[in-house]
Amino acid sequence: MNNLADRIAQLCCEKYNSFGKTGKPQDTEWTVLAGIVLKDAQESLSVVSLATGTKCLSGTELLDTKQWEIGSRLSDSHAEVLARRAFLRYLYHQLNLRLNDNNSDIFELDANKTICLRNNISLHYYCSQTPCGDCSIFPKIVENCVFGVNASARKRKLHANDDMEVKRAVLQEDYQCDEYDVHRTGAKCVEIDKQDSRLPGINYHLLGPIRTKPGRGDRTLSLSCSDKIAKWNIIGIQGALLSRLIPPVIIDSFCIGGQSPFSLEAMQRGICERFATRRCPVFMQSEQSFVHRKGDNRARPCPSSIIWCAVPERQLEISVDGRKQGATKKKKRGNYLLISKQELFRTFLVTVDKFNRTTASEENHPKKITYYHAKQSSATYQQSWQLLKLQSFRAWPAKPLYLQDFVLV
Ligand SMILES: [Zn+2]
What reaction does this catalyse (predicted)? Predict the structure, then answer.
């Protein structure tokens, strides 16, 4: 198998198949599989993080979070988001290898002894289906539709303009065929933005606005996967905390699993064109399909998630409702998922201490700094994010502050 998309998909599916039954769909359940694959200097591929998941806490459930759960319960358990969190564990492990003077697969020191990414590696993101949100909206019969016919003229207009309203008007020109229906997404336009017409046929959805994920009954405060991936594409997938220690980590290609509805145009629009960015990764679809994908005989979403990453210890975790499966409801370290804010924050603080000792840097932190303040002190990252919000993500809903205002347990 030589095709890169097929090799990536096959590796992720094989890794998934190697896990036991715990956390996997049963009977008529389906799930989504997402993962990140590293291509090294020798062009060999290896899976470094993997996750399944379909659920997201509703706004009401999130606001119901108990004091002991702040920083420990995951609000967004879509596979794409969990695979990123697992990837953060992998990044910390690789960074610690480098700080301990061991060989790291992805980090090295440049001439100034600053930690940088090896320049002959690349990162490839796999998802068994098209991400929810804008990327999922496209005509059902693409070939017979004028959708995409004026693609090059439209692209020129998009690139010539940074005004979001103009961009959206240009994007809406995609919808010039009215006898066809569109693939729909459950994600809803954010409340302060214009809303979908929900008229039958091709104009059901608006193109371009950022959207929140559907939850149990009511809206969630979590953005759709298309929006989150778009953010990672612009300011990196590493997040605020790691930005203090490493340069931005950018994904080079996205591979969607076989037998999922897929449109190259919609992927390019959803991740790049509707925002003020010139950076566009490669988008591909594999022929290889995921065994537990949604289908006629798999109609119910699986409530649990499998989370895995390539680290030496405790690689595999199972979660249900954003909590570690089987954990007792107590404010105690052993009850937290290793990909929760609490545990990633702990890993960050330990890594910062080591970073300071090895690089004579002054990334100091007070003993009882809150998660929120640690994130805010990542100045360069916060500047990029504030600018991006002004340009493209003005409507991005902020999570209530108290959910980030915690110190380590
Ligand atoms: Zn999603």
Answer: adenosine(37) in tRNA(Ala) + H2O + H(+) = inosine(37) in tRNA(Ala) + NH4(+)
